[in-house]
């Protein structure tokens, strides 16, 4: 496994193309209350499963609440943002070669290190 820390969260990668998987990645996200990730777009879908706490997830124009024991599928190509409304832990799965972009920027940001 591999741990990646950002100002918004700690990601623990369990499986990815650099950790033995051919196509898929699985990682854990831990966010403190009030932390939020940036608005971004992924080029492939992801499945987020809440393990503890809760988060508000903006998906396009929709707002979703993700709580312990629930899962949500985030579609490809749609703006998204995750905001922890309390201490929040989730397991996420997706494609290991997924690329992220930020609205308003001309270039993609590549594959995040916790996914690759």
Describe the 3D structure.
The chain is mainly β. It has one domain (2-101): Jelly Rolls (Sandwich). Helices cover 0% and strands 52% of the residues. It has no helices and eleven strands. The chain has strands at 2-5, 10-15, 24-31, 40-42, 46-52, 54-59, 62-67, 71-74, 79-84, 88-95, 100-101. The strands form two sheets. The protein has a six-stranded antiparallel beta sheet, with no helix packed on it. Strands 7-6-9-4-11 form a five-stranded antiparallel beta sheet, with no helix packed on it. The mean pLDDT is 96.
Descriptive tags:
about 120 residues, mainly beta, Jelly Rolls, six-stranded antiparallel β-sheet, five-stranded antiparallel β-sheet, about 0% helix
The best one-word shape is globular
Task: Determine the number of helices (DSSP H or I, runs of at least 4 residues).
Answer: 0
Number of domains: 1
Unreliable residue runs: none
Mean pLDDT: 96
Tell me what the CATH architecture is.
Sandwich
CATH fold node name? Jelly Rolls
Secondary structure category = mainly beta
Largest sheet descriptor:
6 strands, antiparallel
Tell me the quaternary state. Answer: single chain
What helical percentage do the residues reach? under 10%
CATH superfamily: Jelly Rolls
- Sketch the topology as an H/E string, one letter per element: EEEEEEEEEEE
N-to-C CA distance: 12 Å
Strand order in the sheet with the most strands? 1-2-3-10-5-8
Number of beta-strand segments? 11
Highest-level CATH class: Mainly Beta
The radius of gyration computed from the alpha-carbon positions, rounded to a whole number of angstroms, is 13 Å
Beta-strand percentage? over 45%
């Amino acid at each position: 496994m591999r741990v990646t820390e950002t100002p918004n969260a700690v990601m623990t990668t369990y499986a990815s193309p650099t950790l033995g998987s051919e196509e898929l990645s699985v990682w854990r996200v831990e966010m403190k209350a009030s932390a939020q990730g940036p608005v971004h777009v992924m080029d492939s879908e992801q499945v987020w499963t809440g393990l503890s706490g809760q988060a508000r997830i903006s998906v396009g124009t929709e707002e979703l609440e993700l709580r312990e024991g629930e899962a949500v599928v985030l579609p490809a190509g749609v703006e998204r943002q995750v905001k922890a409304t309390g201490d929040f832990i989730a397991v996420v799965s997706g494609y290991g070669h997924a690329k992220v972009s930020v609205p308003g920027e001309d270039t993609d940001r590549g594959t995040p290190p916790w996914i690759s």
